[in-house]
Prior knowledge:
Elements: E1 4-6, H1 15-20, E2 25-30, H2 45-53, E3 57-62, H3 77-93, E4 101-105, H4 113-130, E5 135-139, H5 142-150, E6 156-159, H6 168-174, E7 179-187, E8 194-200, E9 210-211, E10 231-234, E11 240-243, E12 252-256, E13 261-268, E14 271-275, E15 284-287, E16 291-295, H7 315-324, H8 337-343, H9 358-368, H10 381-384, E17 400-407, E18 410-421, E19 426-434, E20 437-444, E21 446-449, E22 452-460
Parallel strand pairs: 1-2, 2-3, 3-4, 4-5, 5-6, 6-7
Antiparallel strand pairs: 1-8, 3-9, 7-8, 10-13, 10-16, 11-12, 13-14, 14-15, 17-18, 17-22, 18-19, 19-20, 21-22
Helix pairs in contact: 3-4, 4-5, 5-6, 7-9, 8-9
Amino acid sequence: MNEIIDTPYDVGDFAERLFQEGVRTVMRYYNNKNSTTFPSKCLTPKEHGKLIAAGLKLAVVFQQRGGAGGFIDDFAATKGTRDATRALALAASIDQPEGSGIYFGVDNDFAKTAELDQIERYFGEVRATIGGRYRIGVYGSGAVCARLKAKGLAELFWLPASMGWTGSKAFLASQQWTLFQKFQEQQSTFGRFDYDGNLFNPSFADFGEFGGAPVAEEAPPARVASAPVAVFEIIARRGLNLRDGAGENFTAQRALPLGTLVHGLGVEGGWLQVDVNGDGIADGFMAREFLKPVSGGLPLPAPAPTPAQPQPVTPYAIAQAELARDVREVAGPQNNPRIVLYHSTTSDGAAPDETAWCSSFVNYCVEQAGMRGTDSKWARSWHDSGWGHDVTSDPRPGDIVVWRRRTGGDEGGHVAFFVEMVGDNAIRVLGGNQSNRVCIATYPKHGVLGSMTYDLLSIRR
């Protein structure tokens, strides 16, 4: 089974079996009242105790109906206060630790401006009522997640599997999601209950879970920041074979249809090792040319941590991995999807590769390392916002260099990662949109290069 499952059923009696089957977190529900369809939907203290005793962690989502079927009135502002108050009472009943997360479900593809405005007001009331005691999450479409993220009304983002919902593909590609409900409508081989399997985005420190340490085995090592989850979509019209090895000479297990999403684990020549079931175990290989990255791209190399000194991925390591990909703009009306992916990490979202992308590149690298960027395509945002600390007097490789750049009557900027000083008045940097690609280039601290005048604003860390 998947490490993270969600289910509307009481699974307390199967807690030990769930742990044995590889489940580590069970996501359960808060609500106002159970229905005849799901008579055990709401998590109870008794079930909570059984799950914790078996060494499982929990995460919770509040959803009565959550707008399912298009009922936007479920998100009247007054209901935000009601639902949040009920969620607090249920959290108190199981001693849910403050600082963990409570998600609120938006279970419909709401996309109209008036609908998103109403959902925003609902979450405004939720946030005011919760009062900072718990982190607020949202289960909803990419459009809903993006709106609440931009407004600062949620900080945990659970994306449903329905990629046809508005903005969901773009939000998945942006790597701003915390959880992705990739495996829907599964059924356990014991207990006969339905569940969904979820992927966690390791760019985040956690997803708001809480609860016990394993009792049947040694506690797992502390989570270390790692490369972003790599999700790919099959683009072969007639489907794509899953093979036992990296080559056409290996046996084809089965063909997966057009549009199927798979989780990339590693690369071997022109083949991608994939996890189809979401349990972290390799299922076989697929031809890379028929797979389109929709989140994270090819798995990125990460520094190998040691037990004595865990070593997280840095923005500079991400940038070096992107350099190895030889990312560059595509001539003509087509766009390099990798550059569109960089843009999608900023507040204005995806954009063509002709749009200046040096800041989007830096934002992407910073966010993939689990840090917060500026969310801006404006290069000088890294200086103007006071991001990090000014280390201009003592830069190190991987620091972020920001210039003011002028050409004719136009004024803009450039931002990239510091590599080294070249003499007294030049800096080598690794950046995007340098000669229309990711590369290492040299720029003056203060001076003219080609038709442009550069003035160093600051170096940030």
